Backbone:
């Protein structure tokens, strides 16, 4: 049996075990946001540490970064095995925190009770990004079951605990543990395939900035009948301001934001509409190809609103209203400049002289990879071998703060973004799922890439 077949057999022989591991992780609802129980993040981190200790990383430990206020962040898991002379170190990244599940009644089955249907495993975080944790565990074990534990590669594990909250203390992690994160190449398992059956390497990511915009028009609420007409309520004023951020075709109207070049294949509108669940009759926004709108142009969403709930709303003029914005920025944009562009737009377009407060939030930089990097070519080979079909390079409209931060901290590190998601994964949404065959292929591809590094390094040092 050749090495590829042997590693594939090793992956297949442990898939059932690793599916159970994934289920155990999904059952822990660790959310790194205010209002959620932080103790659950501790449970989640402890479980991840336990898994890596059992997988041959006895020094796996829980670490935290310090934020700007000096307060420790959410628990992350860090482990490292030194490389033998002449061998590279590979950094394996994923995150164990998850998005809030939202109303449980919107899910087909409870979000933190994983269930299998039609070849998919469902549950909050099952794909984003607890599948990434299982990918690393299973790939290392499969590779070492064939090549042996004395393969020579250095392996560093970093499983973040607050990625879904914008990685607020990541800078502190690098400041305190940067030496443990040193590597020649990194596998960031937080993305996925182009479609089921077609693997992909993510070659670009949009960055993100967010914040809160508040308008105030009164020093107290007023009777809407007695005073309505001459005075507009804060929510109406805010709605008019929000509408100014987009052109009539839905493209972003903020001056100073840049677009980048298209990368990878385009997608059919019908396929996109089905994958996204766009309702019949709803028009798509923006201009240009679908992939350019998803990967290479800015996208602005309003993701939260603070005002009076409908259930308790009275006939009053609200004095104040706030909205949280989330802006995705393609490569070529600086997050600080993008944040300032949003602030200036809000200041310029706030109607009726309303009082404006702008509170900047978190941000992350965009990311791109060099297509001619030898590590990229090796990864494409491993993907094609695992799936048995040609791989593509694609952009992703989302953000992974760690990828951009690592590129800045270690410009010589080859950063490879893969994962087990697919267009129907519904990450961040209800009924999030992972396709189990895609997960198996993603594990195999990572194991093959690690074996390739070991083999080529073996030849280089003449072993």
Residues:
């Amino acid at each position: 049996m050749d090495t590829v077949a042997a590693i594939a057999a090793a992956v297949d022989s442990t898939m059932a075990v690793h599916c159970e591991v994934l289920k155990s992780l999904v059952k822990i609802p660790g959310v790194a946001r205010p209002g959620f129980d932080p103790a659950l993040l501790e449970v989640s981190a402890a479980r991840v540490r336990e898994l890596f200790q059992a997988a041959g990383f006895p020094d796996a430990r829980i670490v935290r970064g310090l934020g700007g206020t000096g307060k420790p962040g959410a628990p992350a898991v860090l482990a490292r095995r030194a490389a033998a002379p002449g061998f590279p170190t590979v950094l394996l990244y994923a995150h164990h925190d998850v998005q809030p599940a939202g109303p449980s009644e919107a899910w087909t089955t409870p979000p933190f009770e994983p269930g299998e249907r039609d070849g998919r495993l469902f549950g909050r975080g099952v794909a984003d990004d607890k599948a990434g944790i299982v990918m690393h565990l299973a790939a290392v074990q499969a590779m070492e079951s064939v090549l042996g534990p004395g393969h020579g590669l250095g392996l560093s594990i970093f499983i973040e605990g607050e990625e879904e909250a914008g990685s607020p203390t990541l800078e502190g992690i690098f400041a305190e543990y940067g030496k443990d994160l040193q590597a020649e190449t990194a596998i960031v398992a937080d993305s996925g395939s182009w479609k089921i059956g077609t693997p992909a390497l993510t070659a670009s990511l949009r960055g993100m900035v967010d914040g809160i915009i508040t308008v105030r028009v009164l020093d107290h609420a007023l009777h809407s009948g007695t005073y309505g007409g001459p005075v507009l309520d804060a929510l109406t004023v805010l709605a008019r301001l929000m509408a100014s951020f987009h052109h009539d075709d839905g493209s972003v109207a903020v001056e100073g934001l840049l677009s980048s070049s298209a990368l990878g294949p385009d997608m059919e509108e019908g396929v996109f509409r089905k994958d996204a669940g766009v309702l019949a009759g709803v028009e798509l926004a923006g201009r240009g190809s679908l992939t350019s709108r998803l990967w290479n142009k800015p996208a602005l969403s309003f993701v939260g609103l603070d005002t009076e709930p409908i259930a308790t709303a009275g006939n009053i003029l609200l004095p104040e209203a706030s909205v949280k914005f989330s802006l995705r920025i393609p490569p070529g944009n600086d997050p600080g400049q993008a944040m300032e562009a949003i602030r200036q737009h809000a200041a310029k377009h706030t109607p009726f002289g309303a009082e404006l407060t702008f509170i900047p939030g978190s941000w992350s930089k965009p990311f791109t990879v060099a297509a001619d990097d030898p590590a990229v070519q090796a990864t494409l080979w491993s993907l094609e071998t695992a799936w048995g079909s040609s791989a593509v390079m694609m952009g992703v409209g989302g953000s992974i703060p760690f990828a951009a931060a690592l590129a800045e901290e270690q410009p010589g590190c080859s950063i490879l973004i893969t994962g087990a998601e697919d267009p129907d994964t519904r990450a961040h949404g209800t009924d999030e799922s992972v396709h189990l065959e895609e997960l198996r292929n993603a594990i195999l591809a990572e194991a093959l890439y690690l074996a390739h590094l070991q083999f080529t390094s073996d030849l280089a040092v003449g072993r």
Q: What stands out?
A: The radius of gyration is 24 Å. The first strand starts at residue 61 and ends at 63. The first helix runs from residue 3 to 26. The mean pLDDT is 94.
